[in-house]
Design goal:
single chain; alpha/beta; Aspartate Aminotransferase, domain 2; Aspartate Aminotransferase, domain 1; 2 domains; seven-stranded mixed β-sheet; four-stranded antiparallel β-sheet; 12 helices; binds pyridoxal-5'-phosphate
């Protein structure tokens, strides 16, 4: 895949000289990262030829199967993932959860106290937490009241120091997918990095953005093993992007950022896709039953359409219901103090037994 220039609209009224420069990846990268000589690990320097005496990495020769450093680039995991996700291995980064893939975007592209990022609001909290940790200005732009994306307002919030736009689809905590045409417009018109977090895209049938990397050189798509793949404990997140962006990720990440146990367990999970497909079907079926059942409770004012394995419900008294459920050993997420989400609870789809325990408790709330 080659870096392609973003096409300028043919009906753009600006003269050639006034046009913004075409998108250029290296102009977005922080200078210290551009100039960085990355750490070279022993296993990077020795590659290819067969060997069975490893005296290059100061490892202990005993305690085999755990004594060696893991593959720094996780090639076996990526090869299998490439088949499952339909993306070349050269376009995949693996990290210690999506959290690492989010943090690295700041560390590669955003100059502290100079650059800024734009994001939809409300959305996943880690984008703003990582911005604060990296001392980068975070510009939240409210979604419309129906949680749809206003591309004009998002683009208007960006200036010459905006390096990144954060999108999440299906969005957390609202559950809805963002309009594909609006996302594509942002990808075309914004000459910086656009991250589309698709942590929940496995729970609906729309075309995932990772399959359109070739059309959008400024696109980073995030996926995770934490949701559909039922493996939040192993901490494995993915970024899909051009090989040029993946090379920047690899330059800055910790050398052995994905440990051996995680790589092994990921391979084990990927050897039984049928099980994952079964989970997907059962969770979607439960979702289709639980949403209308909650919607018709007198204590529920609205449930919002969802493409994820959770949904947002606006209640008569979110705080009261939240604590009532806690007293019965049922934990949901109280989002009532989040913008646009007054009196809203975010409810994850559980097993059939868990979902009926929730419904039973809600029906008895007085
Ligand atoms: C749960 C979630 C993730 C997953 O994060 P991990 O660090 O991979 O567990 C990523 N993005 C969003 C929007 C999420 O809700």
């Amino acid at each position: 895949m080659e870096t392609q220039n973003i096409q300028v609209d043919s009906n753009n009224s600006l003269s050639c000289e006034e046009r913004e420069p075409v998108w250029n990846l290296s102009s977005l990268v922080r200078k210290n990262i551009q100039d960085l000589t990355p750490y070279a690990c022993a296993r990077d320097e020795f590659k290819g030829r067969a060997a069975n005496v490893f005296l290059d990495a100061n490892e202990n020769p005993y305690n085999t199967s755990f004594n060696r450093y893991p593959d720094p680039l996780q090639e076996e995991v990526k090869a299998r993932l490439a088949e499952i996700k339909g993306v070349p291995a050269s376009c995949i980064f693996l990290g210690n959860g999506s959290d690492e893939a989010i943090d690295l975007v700041y560390r590669v592209f955003c100059e502290p106290r100079l650059d800024n990022v734009v994001a939809i609001a409300p959305t996943y909290g880690m984008y703003s937490v990582c911005a604060a940790i990296n001392d980068v200005e975070y510009r939240p732009v409210e979604l419309n009241a129906d949680f749809s994306l206003d591309a004009d307002r998002l683009l208007a919030a960006a200036d010459q120091h905006t390096k990144v736009i954060w999108l999440c689809s299906p969005n957390n905590p609202t559950g809805n997918s963002l309009d594909r045409a609006a996302i594509e417009r942002i990808l075309r018109e914004f000459h910086g990095i656009v991250v589309v977090d698709e942590a929940y895209s496995d729970f609906n049938n729309s075309r995932p953005f990772r399959l359109d990397l070739g059309r959008f050189p400024n696109l980073i798509v995030l996926n995770t093993f934490s949701k559909l793949w039922a493996s939040a404990a192993i901490r494995l997140g993915m970024a899909f992007a051009s090989p040029e962006i993946i090379a920047l990720y690899n330059k800055v990440k910790y050398p052995y950022n994905v440990n051996q146990l995680t790589q092994q367990q990921a391979l084990r999970m990927m050897s039984d896709i049928q099980q994952v497909q079964y989970w997907r079907a059962i969770i979607i079926k439960e979702r289709e039953a639980l949403l209308p059942a909650v919607a018709e409770l007198p204590i529920c004012k609205a449930v919002y359409p969802t493409d994820a394995n959770f949904f947002l419900a606006r209640m008569t008294d979110a705080d009261g219901i939240y604590h009532y459920l806690i007293d019965r050993g049922i934990v949901v997420r109280n989002r009532s103090r989040v913008q646009l989400c007054g009196n809203c609870l975010r409810i994850t789809i559980g097993t059939p037994q868990e979902n009926s325990a929730l419904l039973g408790a809600l029906r008895q709330y007085r």
